Amino acid sequence: KSRQLTPHFLWGASTSAYQVEGAWDKDGKGLSVIDLANHTEGVTDFKVCSDHYHRYKEDIKLFAELGLKTYRFSISWTRIYPTGRGDINKAGIAFYDSLINELLNYGIEPFVTLYHFDLPQALAEQGGWGNRETIDAFIEYVRTVFNHFGDRVKFWLTINEQNMMILHGNALGTQDTSLADPMKALYQENHHMLLAQAQVVKLCRQVLPTAKIGPAPNIVSIYPASSHPEDILAANTYSAIRNWLYLDMAVFGRYNTIAWNFLECRGWTPTIEKGDMEILANAAPDFIAFNYYTSQTVTRSSGEEVEKGHTGDQHLTVGESGFYTASRNTHLKVNEFGWEVDPVGFRMTLREIYDRYQLPLIVTENGLGAFDELVKDEQGNLSVEDNYRIDFLRQHIEQMRLATEEGVEVFGFCPWSAIDLVSTHQGCSKRYGFIYVNRDEFDLKDLARYCKKSFYWYQQVISTEAKE
Ligand code: BGP
User: Fold this and answer.
1) Protein residue with its CA nearest to atom 6 in ligand 1
2) What 3 state SS string does the chain have?
3) Which of 118, 128, 326, 466 is most deeply buried (CB count within 10 A of its CB)?
4) What is the model's pLDDT at position 362?
């Protein structure tokens, strides 16, 4: 087995529909839970975003200039089925048809996420993922997507960050906050989403036998804050709940023992109906995609209950009384939003996932959120001197290369994000893109595109690698 990045390595970049497209109610699109979620005060909504819906041709031209081999984006369910099921909205099909063709014209491989947080509101009103009918609606939606685009799309991602929808649903705008026993309900939703995913993997095998499909959770290495055995145990338990509960089911078709025990202790086990375990069996994906931004550190529980449904720091507000408590890792620096920067943790995560599942890996998100400033560069052009982003990505790519040398099979790397877009809950001033979009939180300005310094750096990385 080659211990280097392959010549066909998919150097790419990512976005998601609701964070980049805008045009939230255009051409027959229906509302999603995101369109109606409460927004964090002081930050923009998702109505216009980067207006990619109207500017995708200009954007894809820039992606081609950047040298992307692949572009990972999501399809908005409510553009295809405005109410989640029923009549197809032809304008939605036409939009993605045209976007996919545009990518292929430039030789960019479309890497398509089927569902990235934006559940149709009409389905949410009927119980969302808590209602088993949503599983059928999802399968029908995916069947339509496969029928229309399967002749040109070779790579599919099932559900983006299902594990985060369970752990941080409120911050992501995906959780119904009116639920009486939210955590129990969430683990039932989790079970239903797992059933939906398994069926979609099987559907893909059936109708698109040459395509490849995989899940896209957010997976991170979890450290114990000390070598105290109980801290190590706490880290082990949190890994099972955060990472392996989801992936063990996606790959092995079984519930992780440690995570299941935790659910039992809490009274949060889902109802498993007759036939469910058969559906979940034999649905292993072709690859594992995962998103990685930061590692996490925990200690044994201090006994305090952690308030659920927070919208604050995603990493410091995790914890389960009696099991684990989040802790700052004093060995790591944090970014402007308090997320710890840990490239070595990235290598470890790659090693852990590969070692456990022995499936090819692709990184579908990794990147640095920062407050960028548009300034004139040495040539007098407007740009962003985002050396901090270059450093972040350089270090992560370096660690990915080392993991590859150690035997981990990685076939692609797609930083978040191809172009500036709106963060899940921290607005558009938290930027990740290689391309700057000229707008503020509440002033849309001209939405003009400017290539950042990191754009030219990544262009160089891709062209050098492709030649080797
Ligand atoms: C992941 C999501 C993305 C994204 C990214 C950055 O969790 O899949 O949708 O936005 O994180 O997070 P944030 O926007 O919260 O900074």
Assistant:
1) 423
2) CCCCCCCCCEEEEECCHHHHCCCCCCCCCCCEHHHHCCCCCCCCCCCCCCCHHHHHHHHHHHHHHHCCCEEEEECCHHHHCCCCCCCCCHHHHHHHHHHHHHHHHCCCEEEEEEECCCCEHHHHCCCHHHCCHHHHHHHHHHHHHHHHHCCCCCEEEEEECHHHHHHCHHHHCCCCCCCCCHHHHHHHHHHHHHHHHHHHHHHHHHHCCCCEEEEECECCCEEECCCCHHHHHHHHHHHHHHHHHHHHHHHHCCCCHHHHHHHHHHCCCCCCCCCHHHHHCCCCCCCEEEECCCCEEEECCCCCCCCCCCCCCCCCCCEECCCEEEECCCCCCECCCCCECCHHHHHHHHHHHHHHHCCCEEEEECCCCECCCCEECCCCCEECCCHHHHHHHHHHHHHHHHHHHCCCCEEEECCECCCCCCCCCCCCCCECCCEEECCCCCCCCCCCEEECHHHHHHHHHHHHHHHC
3) 118
4) 98
Instruction: Note the ipTM here.
Output: 0.98
Q: Which of 72, 423, 432 is the best mutation target for the ligand 1 pocket, counting ligand atoms within 8 Å of the beta carbon and taking the most?
A: 423
For the segment 98-110, what is each residue's pLDDT rounded down to a tens digit? Answer: 999 999 999 999 9
Please state, rounded to an integer, the average pLDDT across all residues of the chain: 94
Residues with CB under 6 A from ligand 1: 16, 19, 160-161, 164, 218, 291, 365, 369, 416, 423-426, 430
| 111 Cα to the center of ligand 1, angstroms | 17
What pLDDT, in 10s, does the model give residues 338-363?
899 999 999 999 999 999 999 999 99
pTM: 0.96
Q: Specify whether the CB–CB gap between 344 and 399 falls below 8 A.
A: yes
Domain ranges of the chain: 10-220+282-293+340-467
308 CA to centre of ligand 1 in angstroms: 19
What's the pLDDT score for residue 446?
96
Q: How far is CA 84 from the centre of its chain?
A: 21
Give 20-51 pLDDT, tens digit per residue: 999 999 999 999 999 998 888 899 999 999 99
Which pLDDT tens digit goes with each residue over 364-387? Answer: 999 999 999 999 988 889 999 999
Pick the atom of ligand 1 nearest to 337's CA.
16
Is residue 365 among the annotated active site residues? yes
Ligand 1 centre to CA of 425 (Å) is: 8
Q: Topology of 10-220+282-293+340-467 in CATH?
A: TIM Barrel (3.20.20)
Nearest-CA residue for ligand 1 atom 14 is 423
